[in-house]
Write a structure and sequence with these properties.
The protein is mainly β and 212 residues long. It has helices at residues 5-9, 201-207; strands at 12-14, 23-25, 28-32, 37-39, 45-47, 51-55, 60-70, 74-83, 89-98, 103-113, 120-128, 133-142, 146-155, 160-164, 167-171, 174-178, 183-189, 192-197. The model is unreliable at 1-19 (pLDDT under 50).
């Protein structure tokens, strides 16, 4: 007797691993919170109770209430919190870690914070794992420093941030605003914003790949 395709798609095979047993997946170490199952149609390993995924090479750790692992390509997570090597914390309803591209994209009630940027919210935040750049796009806001804009890109190596207009920035020194297409470079010393200025051509070129 033939099994209907819908039934087959929902057929899951238990992998039989204990709750706390870690497995290696595409360079990630994944520790499930509960049972793992294999979707026979998609080939994805599903963790309905979530767990923890660690990328030691990329320096990130992700904890989520549910996960789906596609062999060698991607990890998807729901209600997830991610911490970075540089001390950043990213929270979102949905995260997708593209293992080949080395990018992690967060959508749905996205927030980000680190030692320099506090209370960042946006429609989407992308972490470029290999370079450490973080790009927030769409309705970007932050509480510290107090700002808003269409795009915000942070370079963890140089501690510089590029804010894209139309934007607004408020500091103890006063307020600054920019029109659509204009950029403002924020420079930090330690955890303090010390300077804001128009970026030079070299700086714009360095940030350009993350302004898409």
């Amino acid at each position: 007797m033939l099994i209907p395709s819908r039934t087959f798609a929902l057929t899951l095979v238990a992998l039989g691993l204990s709750t706390a047993q870690a497995v290696t997946f595409g360079g990630l170490t994944v520790t499930p919170r509960g049972p793992q199952t294999l979707n026979l149609e998609t080939g994805a390993t599903e963790l309905p109770q979530g767990g923890t995924a660690t990328d030691n090479r990329g320096g990130i750790k992700l904890v989520a209430s549910a996960m789906q692992l596609s062999p060698g390509t991607a990890l998807k997570a729901q209600n997830a919190t991610l911490t970075t090597r540089q001390g950043g914390t990213l929270r979102a309803q949905n995260m997708t870690y593209d293992l080949k591209a080395g990018t992690l994209t967060a959508t749905g009630n996205v927030t980000y914070a680190d030692a320099r940027l506090k209370g960042v919210s946006a429609n989407k935040v992308t972490l470029y794992v290999k370079t450490g750049f973080v790009a927030a796009t769409g309705g970007v806001k932050a509480t510290t420093p107090a700002l808003s804009g269409t795009v915000l890109v942070f370079d963890s190596q140089t501690m510089q941030t590029l804010l894209g207009g139309p934007y607004n920035l408020k500091t103890s020194a006063g307020a600054t605003a920019g029109k659509a297409g204009e950029r403002l470079l924020l420079a930090f010393a330690g955890n303090r914003l010390t300077r804001s200025s128009a970026p030079d051509a070299g700086t714009l070129a360095r940030f350009a790949p993350y302004l898409k």
